[in-house]
Design goal:
By secondary structure, the chain is of the alpha+beta class. The protein contains two helices and seven strands.
Length: 99
Amino acid sequence: MARFAIQFSSQALNHLKFFAKRDQRVLMDAIQVHLSTHPDQPTRKRKKLEENDLAPWELRVGDFRVFYDIDVENRVLIVVAVGKKNHNLLHIAGKEVHL
């Protein structure tokens, strides 16, 4: 099973700073577990999003959302944004975002 290299945009690294250290650990662990292999296959936690300005894929980790893009040819996954969902509202870096 070939693994994908996981990279973070500088923006996504800044988004992580908005969360408690414990939440950061939970997110990093989930990213490793769920996205290092087959990140382009939908599951209960991963889904391809409709066309939007943020990212083509989403990983759901409880109330958290990890938005990512995939370079299948080079086997690289890029985390572009990390946010938290509260009911129907998504907040990234303390700001409400609409997809």
